[in-house]
Specification:
With 488 residues, the chain is an alpha+beta fold. It contains 16 helices and 16 strands. The strands form five sheets. A four-stranded antiparallel beta sheet has the order 2-3-1-4. It has a four-stranded antiparallel beta sheet with strand order 6-7-5-8, with helices on one face. Strands 12-13-11-16 form a four-stranded antiparallel beta sheet, covered by helices on one side. β9 and β10 form a beta hairpin. It starts with 5 loop residues before the first helix and ends in a 10-residue tail after the last strand. It binds one DNA strand of 7 nucleotides through β1, β2, β3, β5 and β6. InterPro entries: CELF3/4/5/6_RRM1 (IPR034648), Nucleotide-bd_a/b_plait_sf (IPR012677), RBD_domain_sf (IPR035979), RRM_dom (IPR000504). Keywords: Cytoplasm, mRNA processing, Nucleus, Repeat, RNA-binding. GO terms for molecular function: RNA binding.
Length: 488
Amino acid sequence: MATLTNGQVDGTVHGVGVVSASTNGLVNGLNHSHSPAGCPATIPMKDHDAIKLFIGQIPRNLDEKDLRPLFEEFGKIYELTVLKDRFTGMHKGCAFLTYCARESALKAQNALHEQKTLPGMNRPIQVKPADSESRGEDRKLFVGMLNKQQSEDDVRRLFESFGSIEECTILRGPDGNSKGCAFVKYSSHAEAQAAIGALHGSQTMPGASSSLVVKFADTDKERTIRRMQQMAGQMGIFNPMALQFGAYGAYAQVQQQAALMASVGQGGYLSPMAAFAAAQMQHMATINGLPGAPLTPTSGGSTPPGISAPTVTSIPSPISVNGFTGMPPPQANGQPPAEAVFTNGIHHYPGKYDHLRDKRTHTHTHTQKFKSAYPAAYGQISQAFPHPPPIIPQQQREGPEGCNLFIYHLPQEFGDGELMQMFLPFGNVISSKVFVDRATNQSKCFGFVSFDNPGSAQAAIQSMNGFQIGMKRLKVQLKRPKDANRPY
DNA sequence: TCTAATT
């Protein structure tokens, strides 16, 4: 590694004085001797075959002006953009870099990629063509059920006969231990396909619990969905959004939207509500330790930047019906209607509630709507709303036979309230109880929910059994009648 | 058992 020295890397302030005076590559280019000949200094132009580079593992305290000096070593920069979160503006730890000259990009990649670790990072800097530069072809494999002792070279040897391997990475935890899986990227889809055919299930590595898994790696969209699901487990009681919408509503909404977008392709329509929820989730993922970051949008302007407060009528997608208008309309007694039925993932409320839905639809923002729909949730999370929750913790009651559900694999942090929130969309919940270990006061991760009619119970089973929260899937089934396990 | 990040 010839060009990126310790001094340059460690001294994050090095050169900043020089560069910070200028705000674009044009001026820098004029000040530097590295400006390539083919790139006129006065008009920033890039080669028609220029490569956009993705730069990863950038400390979050470095912005464009700090990074510029590092990369100008290799040529004149056409564009350098640090990626920031759309809503929070937070530095994502990576950037896009385009040099005027294709050659500069190749030089930079050669000299920097994985060659140096920037201060505070525990992985080396990444300099490689951005995803947008590649032929978007599916040629990356996920390899599971490896032996944790196997190295990159071992994996390479296993896969090399099927094609030329561009990239081979063992997934490791922060401690550097293998997670028993890897990514292998071939130069073509056909090679990857060949490897799947030959290797998937072909053998069982010593110490692995089942045979080798070789499949195409998740797409970005699949990863997004996966993250949302994992995050769902975390946000249960901490994210007020989950309470507003009902934990179930928010998760289902985002998952379905993501799935919809995946099927529609890029540029698919994301409902404002799903975007809101997604932003919240992103937010929650990164908020830990961020001083001053707002935890909830409950006071004053209750919409995040970039999201106006739309009405339901502005959401054309039928999917959007679910989790929104599908929420139980507010009732005078604070209870949802027992008539709610659930079909094909979409809630339908009979005509008698239409006026409520229409009224809210046309005159209220989402936030207002959910304030009224979920006053209990708001009461828990904010003092800003003076009205006490009308949903009063009910007596421990059991419904008639066929109305009582047993729920297993609840998130650890779910209490009676969250359990009820999750099942409210299916009908009139007359009781919800999470079982708690007497000694530790910890949830035992199972509980019971009772409805006042068997239809609601069945609807809940249909929709919620197998519903993924975090890494777990809910088990939702009818509670065994009391005498079933007392055969005498 | 799906990376740390991809406008």
